[in-house]
Amino acid sequence: MAWKCEATRIASPGKSSPFNPLHLNRCAAGPAMASLACSLSAPCTTSALRSTFNGDSLVDNAASSHQAPQLSKGALRIEAKESRIGKAPITVPKGVTINLDGQSLTVKGPLGELARTYPREVKLTTGSDGLITVERAVESRKARQMHGLFRTLTDNMVVGVSQGFTKRLQLIGVGYRAAVEKDELTLNLGFSHQVRMKIPEFITVKVEENTRLIVSGKDKCAVGDFSAAVRKWRPPEPYKGKGIKYSDEVIRRKEGKVGKKK
């Protein structure tokens, strides 16, 4: 594949001058862009650009006018960095089995089974040492965005079927109460009616002292979504702190209005 570099012709107002790659060093980009200038009439080969981006020393070869000049070290370096999260391998604990079929992964453990299908931008590899590695299948912007994301989602699957996830909520307010009846959560939150929410499958909700909720399950996304849906009915207000809040949530309080002194 041949790459063709294009550059804007630089000329004085009212005058025309032939294109000269060295004129680019007058721009704000400086010598770095000047060294990248290529002839407008000839394409730059991939190998020439690769040597340029690798930071090799600048070669001044006047005889080869169609070859892209190479950059001096430190002038410009373009490289695809590995994701700090994505490159970390995932350890599979005892009691957890994994089954990889193409782009589909199934994880089984003491708490159940989870499955996920991965996009073509990432690929999974499993080793005999009990490690799962998530890598980029292609080098693109979308693949770099997905690398760390799907590594985290895979780790959540392994942790979910082995340990599970838990969210704790607290009801603060006069008359605020909660109760679980079969697969339904009933909330008294000061409305003229009770709030009834169906508990999703694979999620367990426990009530302690009528005002504390414990939401647990193997799917971290499902646990978080249901907890957020419960909290949304009465978000904590900043004046008296009434509402539904997470147990570790800190409410930023505000001072109420003070009447005029007589």
Structural commentary:
InterPro entries: Ribosomal_uL6-like, Ribosomal_uL6-like_a/b-dom_sf, Ribosomal_uL6_a/b-dom, Ribosomal_uL6_bac-type, Ribosomal_uL6_CS. This is Large ribosomal subunit protein uL6c. It holds the Pfam family Ribosomal_L6. With 262 residues, the protein is of the alpha+beta class. The chain folds into three domains: 25-78, no CATH class; 90-162, Outer Surface Protein A, domain 3, CATH 3.90.930.12; 165-246, Ribosomal protein L6 (Outer Surface Protein A, domain 3). 19% of the residues lie in helices and 27% in strands. The chain has helices spanning 31-36, 46-53, 141-162, 220-233; strands at residues 2-3, 44-45, 90-91, 97-101, 104-109, 112-117, 122-126, 131-136, 165-172, 177-181, 184-188, 195-198, 203-208, 212-217, 243-246. Strands 13-14-9-15 form a four-stranded antiparallel beta sheet, covered by helices on one side. A three-stranded antiparallel beta sheet has the order 3-8-7. It has a three-stranded antiparallel beta sheet with strand order 4-5-6, with helices on one face. The longest helix is centred in the middle third of the chain and has 22 residues, at 141-162. It starts with a strand and ends in a 16-residue tail after the last strand. Mean pLDDT is 78; it is low at 1-13, 21-43 and 55-78.
